[in-house]
TrEMBL record, chain A:
This is Ras-related protein RABF1. The lineage of its organism: Eukaryota, Viridiplantae, Streptophyta, Embryophyta, Tracheophyta. GO terms for molecular function: GTP binding; GTPase activity. It comes from the Eukaryota. Keywords: Nucleotide-binding.
From TrEMBL, chain B:
It comes from the Eukaryota. This is VPS9 domain-containing protein. The lineage of its organism: Eukaryota, Viridiplantae, Streptophyta, Embryophyta, Tracheophyta. It comes from Populus alba x Populus x berolinensis. GO terms for biological process: vesicle-mediated transport. Residues 107-243 form the VPS9 domain. GO terms for molecular function: guanyl-nucleotide exchange factor activity; small GTPase binding. InterPro entries: DUF5601, VPS9, Vps9-like, VPS9_dom_sf. Coiled coil: none annotated. One of its GO terms (cellular component) is endocytic vesicle.
Length: 201, 510
């Protein structure tokens, strides 16, 4: 049976049976398929990060929305494996907060974004961390991301605060700028490295 | 764009391919197991979670069997996948009535959601969800809505899922095309449920349970989740979820509920419930357009909390009266078909006139709707804005009913002088006056009715005063727009005369 990478779905079914669809990762040692959910307050730039990562674009007026769209991007790692990120963006507004579990259920990765110029968004990020610790899947990989790092002069959340909080919670931390593309690809590469690999090879 | 239609055609090709393979004698063993599964399933008692497990397990078993089967030897992944889709479609089409919306709870939830959406649709506006104006292009939403509405045309989980995807993709494209600022983006499509597809909950549950699990991933799963989240949002929705204050929300919901109750009542031809007695307002209030309707000139900013409370109680009053009037109008209509009462001489003419009047109103519907200026404004000026009557469609129908009702009342009046007062019980004399003026060409007849309605005094003089005051009020309405003239039966040249002349004309008959 030729395992074509164009149809990862099928291999999932064959290998894993029923429960596999609930888990974010796909058990193919070489080619991972990963469900990644983005959480964070409205306006912190979640969509911009994805857009920069997937399309290499940044548009301050954001003509393209990915709020309701589904984007995926495959990256190749040095060990000649690939990781396909399936990125589930979520609505940041408070009124939709209660719906988040529908989105992060079964996610292998959660990227929690805040805006370094806004302490409230940092608080909100901490809320999401707690929520995921309580209700997310136990082996979820969490990344804390301080976005808008290009706005140094408006910074209100010190880098150290982010580092400390992430460390305390066993998360991976990075400051990014979707505008300048700073650390965007690195973010996803680092996440990819941290993914648990299927043990069977 | 991948529409449900194109999907369904491609899916029927793969379905026929599957059926072809099943007709091949070589697949007899597969056919046997499929048939026996369907039969045994149909005989078991329904239990959604368990059913889903059984179906999914059967898919897996069949998947393995098909993979090993000589008929599929050398088949590509695509061909193999098509066969599995064919299998899903075949099984689920056969088991549809046994699996879809099977539990009473689901049926109930479907109903509740549908009702809630229906209620919300009557007052919820895009801005309440902070959807920016440039996204409020209804035509595009309509397109998305149409895709979603197709969901009930399909039985296979895959096809239902495709309807959702098409809908979401249209919304997606819509957002893509609209230039927007990033802040607005996220809320827009995620949660705006454009349509009210029947059995939304059951459809979602069905897809979740019976779509092949390995297919519920990636993009379809994301869009599916969007709709599930939209559904949950609606179920949980209250004022806090909206950019709307609580009073406004509650009021909107109440009004929508009453409105839909009234239409239900009408639809069911509500039987002979006793008319709830309501206080007689208005008798004591000054009968003058302005002072009686002090909020006509008010700006939203000027209203105090007390005002809002007063307006709310006024509003409820009007709605109650409207409901009881509807019922009252229904009642004589119903008895009318019973053993016919002797029609007194002289009344025939009025009856005929009134029937004609109703016809005229019907005909004028077109004329009126051509004039945008008329919509709502007269209604406002008669002080019933925001009531179910505020809906112009309703009000025209309503007037027609009143015309009929009054005709019947007059008819009954010969035998029972109670009926007219029953009909108008709970209405302010002013309102009675207005209503009768609108439908009765005969001023004397109006006066007669009003005389019957005013419980406090049956004196004609009093009725006359009320009537004149009503005319004054009518004039205010006429000032707002001359179109109200068309509701009153006048000769053509008289229609062209101004409001002042009209008063004189009508006044002179006293």
């Amino acid at each position: 049976m030729g395992c074509s990478s164009s149809l990862p779905d099928r291999s999932t079914g064959r290998l894993g049976g029923l429960n596999n669809s609930e888990s974010g990762g796909v058990a193919d040692a070489k080619n991972l398929r990963v469900k990644l959910v983005l959480l964070g307050d409205s306006g912190v730039g979640k969509s911009c990060i994805v857009l920069r990562f997937v399309r290499g674009q940044f548009d301050p007026t954001s003509k393209v929305t990915i709020g309701a769209s589904f984007l995926s991007q495959t990256i190749a790692l040095q060990d000649s494996t690939t990781v396909k990120f399936e990125i589930w963006d979520t609505a940041g507004q408070e009124r939709y907060a209660a719906l988040a579990p529908l989105y992060y259920r079964g996610a292998a990765v959660a990227v929690i974004v805040y805006d370094i110029t806004s302490p409230e968004t940092f608080n909100k990020a901490q809320y999401w961390v707690k929520e995921l610790q309580k209700h997310g899947s136990p082996d979820i990989v969490m990344a804390l991301v301080g976005n808008k790092a290009d706005l140094q002069e408006k910074r209100e959340v010190p880098t150290q605060d982010g580092i400390d909080y992430a460390e305390k919670n066993g998360m991976f931390f990075m400051e990014t700028s979707a505008k300048t593309a700073d650390n965007i690809n690195q973010l996803f590469e680092e996440i990819a490295k941290r993914l648990p690999r299927p043990s069977s090879t | 764009m991948d529409t449900a239609a194109s999907q369904s055609s491609s899916s029927s090709i793969m379905f026929y391919d599957f059926l072809d393979k099943m007709r091949n004698p070589a697949s007899l063993n597969l056919v046997k197991s499929i048939k026996s599964f369907i039969v045994s399933f149909q005989f078991s008692s329904p239990n959604p979670e368990n059913d889903s497990k059984r179906v999914q397990e059967f898919f897996s078993t069949m998947e393995a069997a098909i993979m090993e089967h000589p008929l599929w030897a050398g088949a590509t992944d695509d061909e193999f996948d098509c066969s599995m889709e064919g299998l899903e479609k075949y099984i689920m089409t056969k088991l549809f009535s046994r699996t879809f919306a099977i539990s009473p709870e689901d049926v109930k939830i479907d109903q509740e959601i549908s009702e809630k959406i229906h209620l919300l649709q009557s007052f919820l506006r895009p801005e309440h969800l902070d959807i920016p104006p440039f996204l409020q292009n209804e035509a595009s939403w309509l397109l998305a809505e149409k895709e979603l509405q197709k969901i009930n045309a399909f039985r296979a989980p895959r096809e239902k899922l495709h309807c959702i995807m098409s809908c979401c993709r249209i919304i997606n494209n819509l957002l893509l095309n609209a230039s927007m600022s990033e802040n607005h983006v996220l809320g827009g499509a995620d949660d705006f449920l454009p349509a009210n597809p029947p059995q939304l909950h059951s459809n979602l549950k069905y897809i979740q349970l019976y779509r092949r699990q390995e297919k519920m991933i990636s993009e379809p799963a994301y869009y599916f989740t969007n709709l599930v989240s939209a559904k949950s949002f609606i179920v949980q929705l209250d004022a806090k979820s909206l950019s709307m204050d609580e009073i406004e929300f509650e009021e909107g919901m109440q009004a929508a509920k009453l409105d839909s109750k009234v239409s239900q009542l009408e639809a069911l031809q509500a039987q002979t419930d006793p008319i709830p007695s309501t206080r007689m307002h208005g008798m004591k209030s000054k009968i003058d357009g302005r002072s009686n309707y002090p909020y006509m000139e008010a700006e939203p900013g000027e209203l105090t909390v007390e005002d809002v409370e007063r307006l709310l109680s006024l509003y409820k009053d009007v709605v109650t009266k409207y409901s009881s009037l509807c019922r009252a109008v229904r009642r004589p209509s119903a008895t009318r078909t019973g053993p016919s009462l002797p029609i007194p001489k002289g009344r025939d003419d009025i009856l005929l006139q009134l029937e004609g009047q109703a016809q005229m109103i019907r005909e004028e519907k077109a004329e009126v709707s051509n004039s945008g200026a008329f919509e709502g404004r007269t209604i406002n000026s008669s002080g019933i804005a925001g009531s179910p009557l505020g809906c112009s469609e309703n009000s025209r129908w309503h007037r027609r009913q009143i015309a009929k009702g009054i005709a019947v009342c007059l008819h009954h009046h010969a035998t029972s002088s109670q009926l007219p007062s029953q009909v108008f019980k709970g209405m302010t004399p002013l309102r009675v006056c207005l209503v009768t003026q609108l439908v009765l060409p005969d001023v004397a007849a109006s006066t007669l009715i009003i005389a019957c309605c005013t419980h406090s005094t049956s004196s004609l003089a009093h009725a006359h005063n009320i009537f004149v005051a009503g005319l004054k009020f009518l004039r205010v309405a006429l000032d707002v727009n001359g179109l109200l003239l068309s509701w009153i039966r006048l000769d053509k040249e008289k229609r062209r005369t101004g409001p002042l002349e009209l008063t004189t004309i009508l006044g002179s008959t006293f």
